[in-house]
Design a protein that fits this description.
alpha/beta, 9-stranded mixed β-sheet, 17 helices, binds adenosine-5'-diphosphate
């Protein structure tokens, strides 16, 4: 399965000045920098850094060498990029001392995509390959139809939102990844749950990812709705948050991860991007995401309910299988790898799986000691221990008394 990212590449000219230039005014800037940008480029880079094999297609102007270098450095395949005579698409960005910005965009090369070019690229891909699209190139509706007819799986980030999108047939799209503003525009609803239910109603086959900034995200995967809170980072620059999310979402999807894991990884990657300056340079590599995710804390909000849901599932499984709890089996039931399951238990319960299980077993043993006539040995075996002295020690540590004395105290009380 290959990923074709058909999208924009922009040169971002960033000018720092005292204040945003007003009508009729001229002002000298204090600095000027050029950055690689554009949603297509950012998302291609995010997917490549997440470990996916990515082919970027689009048009680059005569002045766009820096963009090619940036894509190449992250491991993106450039064979479907066409050089055009036109100036590269670029943004002129004013940033004031107060951090306000004002942007105008010249589409340039990003508006030079012909139907023939789109056809020639799509012909190189097969049924089941993924095409990733945003709304910063011309002929988007043509590309969607061509990719659909080719049997490709279409992932659309309908950004920036404009009237052209209203004319598009989202029934051809498999996955839509959008923020609250885009969601409201397309669905006419302004509450996250309602945005999703309205889109589901209108486009029954659409899988929906709704990103909610520092409130996290929601993902309807065709069966269930998953929520994830944002990770708690100090936000420095939210540029490319959505692009990083989108890139990691697609890369994890193609890697066959579970829905819960997909949005967790995308949330972690985009939180890391938010904690740094810049667009493309802020997008992390997969090794960094994997190594920091277990230490990252969640923000309160939408994820609290997701966390509660996970806790409840782990508790239920453990209680139902107290005698022979198995981490790999639990991981399988929740759709995670066994290694990750251990990390998740630590994250939601704040303790290792071993400690969590021992406490659960002691609680169950206490209940049996109190409410049944099973002997202490039988209770110990009923909660899954063969080594009695090990259990007695653990129980005594947690309950501050031996199992035998615990029963005696409870009986006296009862
Ligand atoms: P866009 O950049 O397209 O507007 P969002 O603002 O919804 O997208 O952000 C995309 C994702 O990035 C969110 O779902 C969240 O996981 C992450 N994110 C955005 N802002 C923050 C933040 N301040 N702190 C942590 N994560 C954030």
């Amino acid at each position: 399965m290959k990923i074709l990212s058909f999208g924009s590449c922009n040169l971002d000219y960033v000018y720092k000045l005292h204040h945003i230039v007003a009508k009729g005014e001229t002002e000298q800037t204090s600095s000027m920098s050029i950055f690689a940008g554009g949603k297509g480029l950012n998302q291609s880079i995010a997917m490549a850094r997440a470990g996916a094999e990515v082919y970027h297609a689009g048009c680059i102007g005569a002045d766009g060498d820096m963009l090619l270098d940036t894509l190449k450095d992250s491991g993106v395949d450039l064979r479907y990029i066409k050089r055009v005579e036109e100036k590269n698409g670029h943004a002129i960005i004013q940033v004031s001392e107060k951090g306000e910005n004002s942007i105008f965009l010249y589409p340039g090369s990003n508006a030079m995509i012909t139907e023939e070019f789109a056809d020639s690229v799509i012909a190189e891909f097969d049924r089941g390959d993924i095409i990733v699209l945003q709304n910063e190139i011309n002929n988007l509706d043509y590309i969607i139809k061509a990719a659909y007819n080719r049997g490709m799986t279409i992932v659309l980030n309908p950004s920036p939102i404009d009237e052209k999108l209203s004319a598009m047939d989202f029934n051809m799209i498999s996955y839509i990844v959008l923020n609250e503003i885009e969601g409201e525009h397309i669905s006419g609803q302004n509450i996250p749950e309602k945005i999703i239910s309205q889109l589901k109603l209108k486009y029954p086959n659409l899988k929906i990812v709704l990103t909610l900034g520092d409130k996290g995200c929601m993902y309807y995967d065709g069966e269930d709705i998953y929520c994830h809170a944002a990770f708690d980072v100090k936000a420095v620059d939210t540029t490319a948050a959505g692009d990083t999310f989108m890139g990691y979402f697609v890369a994890s999807l193609i890697a066959g991860e579970s829905s819960a894991k997909i949005i967790e990884k995308a949330s972690a990657a985009s939180a890391i991007a938010v904690s740094r300056n810049g667009a493309a340079p802020s997008i992390p590599y997969s090794v960094e995401v994997d190594s920091t995710i277990s230490t990252m804390k969640l923000k309160a909000g939408r994820t609290a309910s997701r966390e509660e849901e996970i806790k409840e599932k782990i508790n239920r499984y453990t209680e139902e299988n107290i005698q022979d709890v198995n981490l790999a089996e639990l991981a399988g039931k929740l759709g995670y790898s066994p290694a990750y399951m251990g990390e998740l238990v630590k994250k939601v319960f704040g303790k290792s799986f071993g400690k969590y299980l021992m406490e659960k077993r002691c609680d169950k043993a206490a209940e049996l000691l109190k409410n049944t006539h099973l002997s202490v040995g039988e209770v110990i075996r009923a909660v899954g221990y063969n080594n009695e002295s090990f259990f007695r020690k653990a129980f005594t540590q947690i309950y501050g008394t031996t199992p035998y004395n615990y029963r005696k105290t409870m009986k006296n009380r009862g």
